[in-house]
């Protein structure tokens, strides 16, 4: 057990370095981080570490977390940190772009996303938004996609797709929201693989070398972008056919969120690590 805690402590320290770098760059002091960590400790202990058939008491949460019962009670009385608006905007914009890329009704003769008029007969941007983003006004979605440089509006008023994925480029808050989703998915996958049987493990792989010349990185970035995007689009084409928001006729029980993430990384190797 001591060895596990030692290794876990080292692993947590490593993952905290880039996180703390982001927090300091954005002006979040330690006290705020500590309060957030305390809230999550209490929430996870309360929701996920119950004894079957028994009510989860503040005393048990106190034992699990190491916090006093007074601290546990105080945390429970506070509302949790949320940013529903940013997440909802992200999801709606992503669904519209996905429909534009995948739905043949909104493609041109070369099976590429068509240049769409805002209104009118046939496939239009307003129709696209109506089908893939519910009751949100088309103008609001257009403003968002223009804001992140995902589309451009031509002189004749038609709208052209520039990016085949919703990637916030101008808003720091939107970029930080991705931190809260993508990193959480990766850690949740690792958590699952730590406790599951080998045959039930999620796919989790990476390829990396630690003695590469700087000149090799531009080509690696290009290959990652090219092949990674191609793989994601291929998998997306299959996933969109299984999604009941897009295809209400899809049968089956339960509701799951699942997906695949690809990322590029690089870092300097210090003399102590060589």
Give a written overview of the molecule.
The chain has 274 residues and is mainly alpha-helical. The protein folds into 3 domains: 1-81; 84-161, Arc Repressor Mutant, subunit A (Orthogonal Bundle), CATH 1.10.10; 205-274, no CATH class. The protein contains 9 helices and 2 strands. Strands 1-2 form a two-stranded antiparallel ribbon. α3 (58-65) crosses α4 (69-76). The longest helix is centred in the last third of the chain and has 26 residues, at 217-242. The chain is globular and about 65 Å long. The mean pLDDT is 87.
Shape: globular
Largest sheet: 2 strands, antiparallel
Strand order in space, largest sheet? 1-2
Number of helices, counting only DSSP H or I runs of 4 residues or more: 9
Run of helices and strands: HHHHHHHEEHH
Radius of gyration: 23 Å
Strand content: under 5%
Number of domains: 3
> How many distinct beta strands?
2
- In percent, how helical is the residue content? 40-55%
SSE topology sketch:
Elements: H1 2-25, H2 30-48, H3 58-65, H4 69-76, H5 84-102, H6 125-133, H7 138-147, E1 151-153, E2 159-161, H8 172-195, H9 217-242
Antiparallel strand pairs: 1-2
